[in-house]
Every structure is written in C-alpha cells, then in structure tokens.
Amino acid sequence: MKKKRKILFVTERRADYSRLKPILRLTQQSRKLKMYLVLAGSHLLKGFGETKRVIEDDGFSIDAIVPMFHERGSDTGAAMARGMGRALIALTGVMERLRPDIVFCGFDLGAHLAAAIAAMHQNIHVAHIQGGEVSGTIDEILRHATTKFAHLHFAATPQSKRRIIRLGEDPRFVFLVGSPSVDTMRSISYPPKDALAARYGFDPKKKLILFSQHPVTTEVRNVLSQIRESIDALREAAKEHNADIVAIYSNADAGGRRIVAELKRSGFAVFPHIVYEDFLRLMKVADMLVGNSSAGIHEAPFYHLPVVNIGTRQQRRERGAHVIDATHEKRSILKAVRAALRDMRFRKRARTGVNPYDRGPTAKKVVRILETVKLPSIQKVITY
Q: 3-class SS at 307?
C-alpha cells in the first residue's frame, strides 16, 4: 500500500481550531493521509477557557503541546512576540521528531507563522488556508508573511486568490476553496431558542445580542477606553431594546486580559469559551452580533445576522451586506445598534445578502488536494 502523506496541523486558540475542525475531521478519516495535531497558545491557559479540553472531547489525539504564554504573564505586544519565539523553537523540535510531509498553517496567528518558518527551514512543505485576506492591524501582516512561506494556498474568495497571486505565488498552487467554517454551519443541528436560553442564561422572550470584542494590538494603549465604551453602549442598548447580552472572553493578544477583567464587571452573561457549534447556534437565534470578531464577517452572513462591527480590526475585510461599522465611541455604537434593529432597508439587505466565503464543501476540497497534489519544488517559484 502506498505510504500515507503526513500532515501536521497547528492550532493556537479557539478561533483557528473552530475553523480547522472540519478539515481535521476529514484528514483523520482519510486513508491517504496521516494527521498530527499540535496545540499551542491560549488552548493551554485556564484564564482563557483551557480549550485543550474541548479538542480532547472532540476525539482528536494531541501529538505535541507548545506553551507560548504564561498563565499570569504580561498583557503586551512584547509578550506576544516572546510567545511566538517560544513557538518557533518548540515547533522546530516537534517537526524534527515527527517529520511531516506538509505543515498546515491557518489564518493569521503567531503560532502559524512560527510553524511556517520552522517548516521552511527544514525543507518541509507548507500549506496555508485563508491567505490573501486584508483586515488591517498586525493580523494582516502575519497572514501575508505566512503566505510567503507557503507552497500550497487555500483561498476563501476569488478576491483573496487574486491577491495571493499578486503577492508572487505560483497560480498552479493557489486553490479557491471557501471557508471551512461554512461546512460546520451546514452540518450541525439547531435546537430552539428556549433550549439555548436555559443553557446560557438569557431570557428567550427578549432580544439577544451577542458580544465579542478583541484588542487591536496597534491600539493597545486605548484598549480599556474602547471596551468600556462598548460595554456602556450595550448596557444602554439592552434597556432601550429589551435585550439580553451574552458575551465571550477576548483572545489572548496584547490587551486581552484587560478586556476580560472589564467583561467580568459588566453584568452581562460572560463565558470564557463557548463551544463553536453552540456559538453558531446562538448566532442563528440572536438578533445581532456586536464587536470586532471575524465571526461577524465569516459566519454571521450565513444566518443573515446583522452585525455592528466596532473599530479598525476588520476594517478592510471583504464582507456581505449585513455589517454596519461603528467607531469605538458609545454614541456611534448605539447609533449602529439602532440602525441594525430598526432600519428596514438594512435588515432586508442582511436577509437577502450572500456570504462571500461560501464556496461549497471546503474541507472536502482541501483534503482531496492534500491527498492528490503533486508537491512543488521545496524551492519556491516566485512569479513577480
């Protein structure tokens, strides 16, 4: 029997794992692929939900653990950089031991860039999903940097595919596949609002606003004022519109711990982690998503869910017609919330809009390519 191709996946936090999960599942089932899974970053931190347990509960074997951050470490950009340095050193050793054929990197996180660098220096092919997207802040820089280390590119939209090629990547190895999160949205069951209300502590007779706000690393000095403006606006909006708020912890980027501390004092129903499938179910029954999470861009249009996108974190990201932008000022956020709930023209656009990240069964496309693609030369061909 032909030798299986070995694929090593790296995941740093709940967001990238949630989107990688359909690909992980099909890779695990493939007769032509052998999967390795490496956990890093906030998956290991109790203060951010210790989502390592979620991955274990999902039935995946973990082949290596890569600590990046200290449980009570500093909340700065320097801590992020040191974490990426630890990931680079540790992942180099993991790859020396496991010797994968392909290292699969996702999205725009430090652990993925570290994995791509470690792999390229050891003549291991790199695959990257959802490159070519723009969003502003350091995430975009990490994403484009990982693209330049990758040999195989899995783009979510035609625009992203064109951008990857303009970055000089070989068009023969840039594949349009969509976003894997759509696979999950199509495959899960959806319980009634009452059942979710009992689980997450909100009143099913009221409007439901989901809240997810992360720090903007280039604006970290303003993180406290930004989250306080959002919380104040949502408190007022909840009274005005008879709504309950369900909030989820920030990520572990610089400033994230400060956001978490403010959320704990907010009076909202706050959760360190909500299992991805349940977060999708909440989106289906919610009246709105507020914050700056990419879930408002990638997942929300599937449910035609109105989104109030705050600040610059997603400022240039390709999006559907369901988004209203707001600044980090209470007045701007309240104005956007009112428009999202009351503006009938906007709500009609949101109901009838399409999701630009939906290109069909993404995971099947990705795994088929991983199984069959003839790998290019490890020496990349740059087509400038």
A: strand
